[in-house]
Amino acid sequence: MNKNPGHDLNRRRFLLSGLRGAGGAWAALHWPAILAAAEHAAHAREAVPPAKLEVLSAEQAAEIEAVASRIIPSDETPGAREAGVIYFIDRALATFAAAQRDDYAKGLQVLQAKTQEMFPNTQRFSQATPDQQDAVLKALEEEPVFELLRDHAVMGFLADPARGGNRGKIGWKLMGFDDSPAFAPPFGYYDR
Amino acid sequence: MNPQVTYKPSEEVDFAIVGSGAAGGVLAKELSTAGFKVVVLEQGPWIPPSEFSHDEIKTFLEHQFTNDPQQQPQTFRKTPQDKAQRHAGLIYGRLVGGGSVHFTANFWRFHEIDFVERSRRGEIPGTGFADWPVSYAEMEPYYTQVEWEVGVSGLAGSSPFDPPRSKPYPVPPLPVKSSGVIFERAARKLGWHPFPAPMAILSQAYRGRAGCIHCGRCEAFGCEVGAKSSSLASVIPVAQQTGRCEIRAQSYVHRVEINNQGRATGVAYFDARRQAQFQKARAVIVSANGAETARLLLLSSSSRFPQGLANSSGLVGKYLMINCYHEVFATFEEPLNEYKSVAVTRVLHDFYELDPKLGFYGGGGLDARFGITPTWFALGAVPEDVPRWGKAYKNWLESYSRTMIVASHAASLPVAANSVSLDPDLKDAWGLPALCMTYKDHPDDLSTIRYLNDRAVDLMQAAKALKVWTRPVREQSFAVHLLGTCRMGNDPKTSVVNAHHRTHDVPNLFLCDGSSFVTSGRGQPTMTIQALAFRAADKIAAAARRGEV
Question: Are A11 and A105 within one domain?
């Protein structure tokens, strides 16, 4: 996968330095196992796909991103938009969720129709105000399109960054999740 | 790793073993070290642990470790009177190592009562409640053998409810997590008896394998460092080193062939390229799990065995048991960081045998756990009073690192109508009849799990959690513990295999896995599956040496 052996060596050193906090004797005992896991995690991270769309049109992406931004809004902390959820969904439709492309196409029609029905002066969901958008989504909560977009928005916020979303581990940081490949006790406040 | 031996399918080996999981791995190791030639045929691929991923999408949606409902669809119905609908409820490990690769690794022994419930408690209406043809005393050396051969962490004598044991655990318990500390303190306050969880995960290096590095991806994931004592990490490498055992991955066995004398001659399977192959064997052992073992016998029907191979009792596929499971969530003020390390560090068995005066039969255990990854939590654990999207939902996500679970584990009673069978219409991607699951929890099972869940709520309230939430107990339609579908017994009319796992109908056909269970135990079957496999291997090897296979 990596053409430059020097790069591999550097990464190894980097991983070594990052694990110093894990406690000397313990780390020495578990060294080969930790290194294997850390290498594996590093490989996955290198595989983060570029931020470009392969399946969705720019127009479709704008509508989906507008929905995702109401599912996990941006406020004091970053939300779905900053996490690049739209790139996760685009990758999903190219891979594990390819069978759901039609559901997306139909769902976006339902979204647009509901927006126009509730707010006749607004052509597209993405053009509505946040309050109007929330009202449209509320009205669609029982529809399959809502489930689909909601689940994929959440996945795109929290799944492995290698899947295109959760950029900069924004979702994990919000949850207080650390994806380090190895830990040592104490793990939390109550087992100190 | 040494290159393994390979056999030609036309070469008659001593044993063809179908399945490489908890049971198949143990049988392969025992029989090959005993000098026999063995081929293990595994449906799924051989994935090197370095390719095990922490990616939730790969695990839950792309099915890296489990059967894929796109390739192998299933149907489900509650009762035999209902029309079955598309629903893949039976989930099993589908790779070399089977379910032992992705399981949580809780490793309780059965207690003495689990083998003799019928005679102790009498008949229970609507069930085929029966005693096992083996006792705890007879199983004890094999439980000990499992602990020492695959590697189990635990502390002997730490639970007053534990059955007698002949030896301590080979390695000490894993370090307690915050959930375990909270669970233990609250349980003691209530007068209960928490103890360190016995886990098939190494707390320290053992027999050349690494100890746990506490990465936190045990439940539903594979262990990259081999600290989880899966068949893949523990027994299969030993089997390969004998030079007598071939593990043949991507080999989907669909028929056990029988000759005119009524003896098994080998197994027909589809190879990785979906070409038809036939492996000759002097004897066949099916360890394909409680769903696929029964399905394989039903697929192997013939004029001699019109209702399925080894099915003169009519019980192949019947008495499916899946255990009851329910969980209570609790959030605390400070971070627990339960995403680190193994899922479970404390257990209690104070409710293993409930008082019959409660009006229902049952019992089980509680444990402090959390194996839930971020996406799984965000999609699956939302309390009813929290919106499912928007700002309030986003705020709730922040509680992830401060949340733990108390899980209840209980029996499921053997009900004849609960079963796996062949769907009459649906086919899988190989053109074989799909699995149909028929399941409706016995009312006593639901009462038991409700009772245990209430105790879990008591426990988290005693722990002074900020917030405690749970969902109503409902009838189950998903199963990961696949038990009881080819039950053991001495009477050929009421069982499929005898006490030595030999089918009553075909002298050189053996079945050993969760399908052999007579009753379900209290929720953690793998330890007993492996103890049965060590015992079966002893009996089968002895019979083979006497020329009786």
Answer: no
- The one-character DSSP state at B201 is B
Assigned domain for B394 exists: no
The vertex-B203 CA angle with B202 and B209, nearest 5°, equals 45
Q: Give residue B511's domain range.
A: 1-66+89-101+108-151+230-320+485-549
Cβ atoms B251, B277 nearer than 8 A? yes
Assess contact for A177 and A160: CB atoms under 8 A.
no
Residues across chain A: 192
Number of structural domains found in chain A: 2
**Nearest residue to B286 via CA among B464, B145, B450, B485:** B485
Would you give the DSSP letter of residue B531? H
Matching residue, tokens 């997590």: B177
**pLDDT above 70: residue A117:** yes
The answer to whether position A107 is within a domain reads: yes
Residue B180 φ then ψ, to 5°: -65, -40
Residue A20 has a pLDDT of: 39
Cα of B116 to nearest chain A Cα, Å: 39
For residue B175, say if its preceding peptide bond is cis, omega within 30 degrees of 0.
Answer: no
Helix axes B22-33, B526-545, angle to 10 degrees: 30
Q: What ipTM was estimated for this complex?
A: 0.94
Quick check: is A113 in a domain? yes
Same domain assignment for residues A75 and A138: yes
* Exposed / middle / buried, residue B521 (Cβ in 10 Å: 0-12, 13-18, 19+): buried
Does B153 score more than 90 pLDDT?
yes
Residue B45: inside a domain, yes or no? Answer: yes
B141 occurs within a structural domain: yes
Q: Establish if B217 belongs to a structural domain.
A: no
B309 touches B507 (CB < 8 A): no
- For A124-146, what is each residue's pLDDT tens digit? 999 999 999 999 999 999 999 99
- Looking at CA atoms only, how far is residue A110 from chain B in angstroms? 19
Q: How far does B371 lie from chain A, in Å, by closest CA?
A: 13
Q: Is A63 on the interface with B (CB under 8 A)?
A: no
The predicted model scores a pTM of 0.94
Can you give the pLDDT at residue A13? 43
Give tens-digit pLDDT for B496-541. Answer: 999 999 999 999 999 999 999 999 999 999 999 999 999 999 999 9
Which residue segment(s) compose the domain that A168 sits in?
58-175
Instruction: Flag if A75 and B379 touch (Cβ within 8 Å).
Output: no
Number of domains making up chain B? 1
How distant, in Å, are the alpha carbons of A105, A166, B293, B317, B434 from that of B299? 41, 46, 10, 12, 10
Share of chain B above pLDDT 90, in %: 99
Tokens of A15: 């991983």
Tokens of A104: 């997306």
Closest CB to B375 among A154, A181, A187: A154
Same domain, A134 and A75: yes
Distance between CA atoms of B367 and B356, rounded to whole angstroms? 23
User: What is the C-alpha separation between B330 and B324, in angstroms, rounded?
Assistant: 20
Task: List chain A residues with CB under 8 Å of B228.
Answer: none
Give the three-state DSSP class for B40: strand
